[in-house]
Amino acid sequence: MEFVNDVIVDKLFDTVESVNLPTYIEGVFEIGKILSHVAIGVLTGNISLLVDDIVSFAYSAKHCKAECKRLSEQAKIARDSAKELLNKLAETPKEIEDKSFASALKAFSIVLEDARAVVKQHAEAKYGLKIFYARKFAAEFQDIEDRLDQACHRLNFAISIRHFVESQELEEAHKTWHEEDKVAFAKLNTMVKESLEEIRGYKKSTSAPSQSVLSGTRISLAELSDFKHLKTDRLFTAIYHTTDSNRKPKDAKVVIKVTMARESVPEEESKFALEVAYLQKLAPCPNIIDLIGITSLRNNMSLVLEYCENGDLRSFIAAGSLKDNWGRKRQISLGVALGMEFLHKAGILHKYINSANILLDGHFQAKITNFRKSRWTNGGSLGLIDSFEEQIRWTAPERLGDDPATFTEECDVFSYGVVFYEIVTEEFPWQGLQLDLVYKYRSEEGRKLTLSLHTPPAISTIYTNCTKTAPKQRFTTSEIIEHLEAIRPEELENVTTFEPIHENNGGAHFEVNKMVKEEDDNLLKVVTSRDLSLSDISDEEDMATSPQEIIKIAENYHQIRDYARARVEFEKVQEESPRALFRLGEYYYYGRGVNVDVQKAVQYLERAVEGGDGDAIDMLGYMYLKGQGLPKDRIKAVKLFTMAVEKGIPYGMYHLGVCYNKGCGGLKKDEEESKRLILKAASLGNMEAQHFARQKSWDSSW
320 in a domain, yes or no? Predict the structure, then answer.
């Protein structure tokens, strides 16, 4: 759609200043009161054009496919909403539904916020391939941001209205404006403003702080002394010279957290102010770190926080300070839950609940800290994707994979569940495994941490219900607190901590937590040797290593990605173990620890299939389906997927479900059978199946 009064507005471009989204949306209401519904048409027409640009940009950013796909789909919704609104305007301009207009504007507001935040965030990301594209992506983002600013110039009705008012044409339009139109538009104006209240509130909360907000909490460097490094060069302890309630001199030990924010940079100051705002709002809670004030250190804005004598929970556990002390474990678990409940009631999602972000004071009171990446639950854009390298061990499963879900309170609860696991087992989650392997196990294979079978039911109930795969099935913070408070001391008597598997790998300490797939697929479990008495075996047999023990050693090497050593061990038992054959085929196919040799991989996989290994059956089927390493043969692929399904392999269910959905491999297209198989795979934790089910809107829980 062409811009109304294009010639007049073009003359204003040199003087018009860029404004924030809510400002120019409010401007359209002002001009709309005079120019009738045509102004709404102009706005939505430009929305449609701009959204097209955003969609095009999203598809060009291939290295963050999932985020941009979500962004582009959200953009399409905004564009379609705008076009639908235009059609309604053309047909019955006076009967347009208020809700449609509000929805179009809100959708466009959110997509703009996502365009800026998501794209910029991934320009700065340092995980996986994103680090390779960082500079190029930053330049592309600058380009789209400039274009968004130009669009704001063009849509800035609030400023250009002054020029329209002076024209005779505008006066004539004003005379023809009917009273009922004024009432209708005023009602529409009010509704849309209300619908955008969350977005404006979010922008306000993230804008640069006023001096009045921060001036009252400022602490000068003269009031601080005895600086000492605490773990990193951005954390210090110091003595704060202040006065007590009776105005008598008082010295208090504090922690100074030096941020990267500089007061001279508005954007950095805004982020700093947001963390201050969180801490100020949460001040009444004893389980949230107390903000004493702010200062400036090394030209960077810094938080002055209360000092917690017992440090962070992760270090406290690693030092063995919780060893079999179940009373203290319960106390700390309850403190974290109370702090999290306070957060959620205050409308804040922490997003980074983990043991390093929980501090313990001198009385072992747990205090949640680090709110730099938190957000208000009623903030504008609810679907932003976060960089979560170190948080992968604690992240809820719905936030992993190619299509992460919106962050909710249930995601914080899952993270709490993993922290609870640390407290109970006294072990770091997924200990000894690199992050990319943890990500693979969790997102691709659906594995999860499990407690010992000897764990008291009162404890295991809390962990199990905090870490349910379906978010809506998880405990609320209130339920966690209720169950912790109900635990009786006698339930914890004589309970010892579960000891994980320990291996020595070339002198390096290696620990693996017990891991199982959610569907309890025995074929993917590490096989352990059966307990034997001394009378059952001879001295010679006692010296030998059983095939099961060799497989266990090999799987441990596999878990730490030492594929060369794992291959050597698997080769020892290839005649006895189909699982070993599958692993060897996998290594030669992907070139893990050996050069790629597809022909050799096929030989191993075919032998594994003969031995009945379910994952080998599915992998061979996939190779036939795609024609990767084998001639493309969809009929053979379907046959193998069917065999994998019979063995309960989730990937087999997913692959066969897709074949039914497409009607390939000799199968008749069958939507119901496809749905049944894919939902079954999704219920067993298969992330690809869950993503497929979401796309088809088959089940909202995925």
Answer: no
The pLDDT score that the predictor gives to residue 118 is 54
Map 400-463 to HEC letters.
CCCCCCCCCHHHHHHHHHHHHHHHHHCCCCCCCCCHHHHHHHHHHCCEEECCCCCCCHHHHHHH
Share of the chain above pLDDT 70, in %: 54
Last residue of a domain, one of 195, 220, 248: 195
Rounded to 5°, the CA angle 641-646-647 comes to 95
Co-location of 260 and 177 in the same domain: no
| Domain presence at residue 564 | no
Same domain, 278 and 346: no
Picking from 638, 642, 643, the residue whose alpha carbon sits closest to that of residue 666 is: 638
Cα separation, 461 vs 171, whole angstroms: 72
Residues 13 and 122 placed together within one structural domain of the fold: yes
| Separation of CA 334 from chain center | 25
DSSP string, 319-357: TTTTTT-HHHHHHHHHHHHHHHHHHHHTTEE-S---GGG
State the pTM of this model.
0.45
Q: Give how far the C-alpha of residue 123 lies from the chain's centroid of Cα atoms, to the nearest Å.
A: 17
Whether residues 216 and 178 share a domain: the answer is no
In angstroms, the CA 325 to CA 515 distance is: 25
Do both 118 and 224 map to the same domain? no
Q: Distance (Å, rounded) from C-alpha 656 to C-alpha 640?
A: 9
What's the pLDDT band for 659 if we cut at 50, 70, 90? very high
Tell me the β-bridge partners of 300: 297
Query: Residues 455, 498: contact at Cβ < 8 Å?
Result: yes
CATH of residue 337's domain is 1.10.510.10
Distance of CA 239 to the CA centre of its chain: 38
236, containing H or E segment = strand 232-243
In a domain, 481, yes or no: yes
Q: Is the pLDDT of residue 526 over 80?
A: no
**515 belongs to a structural domain:** no
Task: Report the pLDDT averaged over residues 465-475.
Answer: 93
The answer to whether residue 384 scores a pLDDT higher than 50 is: no
**Which domain CATH number covers 300?**
3.30.200.20
Query: At which of 140, 171, 195 does a domain end?
Result: 195
Please report the DSSP string for 81-95 in residue order. HHHHHHHHHHH-TTS
Question: Domain check: are 29 and 166 in the same one?
Answer: yes
Same domain for 364 and 474, yes or no, is: yes
SS3 assignment, position 122: helix
pLDDT score at 258: 80
Residue 557 main-chain phi, psi, to 5 deg: -60, -40
Helix (H) or strand (E) holding 114: helix 98-123
Is residue 629 over pLDDT 50? yes
d(CA 171, CA 175): 6
Burial of 195-230, coded b for 16+ CB within 10 Å and e otherwise, reads bbebbbebbebbebbeeeebeebebeeeebeeeeeb
Kindly state the DSSP code that residue 292 receives in the 8-state scheme: E
For residue 445, give both structure tokens: 């294979």
Phi/psi at 400 (5° precision)? -100, 170
* Owning domain of residue 149: 6-195
CA-to-CA distance for 458 and 487, rounded, in angstroms? 7
CA–CA distance, 55 with 528 (Å, rounded to integer): 52
pLDDT digits (tens, 9 = 90+) for 271-329: 677 677 777 777 778 899 888 888 887 777 788 899 999 989 998 998 888 888 888 99
506 pLDDT above the threshold of 50:
no
Q: How many domains does the chain divide into?
A: 4
More confident of the two residues 345 and 514: 345
